[in-house]
Specification:
This protein has 184 residues and is mainly α. The protein is 70% helix and 0% strand. Residues 1-12 have low confidence and may be disordered.
Length: 184
């Protein structure tokens, strides 16, 4: 993930043109991160739009001397996801659909892919919240370990080690799942 460097004399210079460029550069990563966290495309779209709306409204408070724009942006996105998750714990919602089938896949292949995605999603949801967030930032948003470290206020080495442990844990869970599926 590249980072746009904003050369701002004053934070208020985050004008429409710069904002549009930053949106274009980071919207997909923010959406993927949020989608990874919430699991539903429509909700991810809403939270992504809300994130950028909040960024626009708070643009005068952005301080490039304190953090890179991407760090500030994802801090806002994380808060939106956390707020949404808190609301869901109080008011669980059951999705009506699992998504749209991929027209290029046969019904059998689509069913198998959907089953594997659902299984992987459940395995990720069994991880601790902090582990889920690392997976979402790394693979959902496509962030580098350095960017994640800045966002979470940890060292890059700590993030790398934590990601390694989470991936090993997830891989073992995936292998157990596949062994159980073969036995059934």
């Amino acid at each position: 993930m590249s980072q746009t460097t904003i050369s701002l004399a004053r934070p208020a210079v985050l004008d429409k043109v710069v904002f549009a460029e930053l949106y274009t550069e980071h919207a997909v990563a923010v959406f993927n991160y949020i989608l990874f966290c919430v699991g539903t495309r429509a909700i991810a779209e809403d939270l992504t739009a809300d994130t950028f709306e909040r960024v626009w409204r708070a643009r005068r408070r952005y301080r490039p001397d304190r953090a890179a724009f991407v760090t500030w942006l994802f801090a806002i996105a994380r808060r939106r996801v956390i707020d949404w998750q808190r609301r869901q714990r109080r008011r669980p919602v059951t999705p009506l659909t699992e998504g749209h089938p991929d027209d290029a896949l046969s019904p059998e292949a689509h069913a198998e892919r959907s089953e594997r995605q659902t299984a992987l999603r459940h395995l990720v949801l069994e991880l601790r919240d902090d582990e889920q967030e690392l997976i979402a930032l790394k693979f959902g948003a496509g962030m580098t370990n350095r960017t994640i470290a800045h966002l979470l206020g940890k060292s890059e080495t700590a993030i790398g080690s934590a990601l390694y442990r989470v991936i090993v844990k997830l891989r073992a869970s995936w292998e157990d799942y596949n062994e159980r599926a073969v036995d059934d």
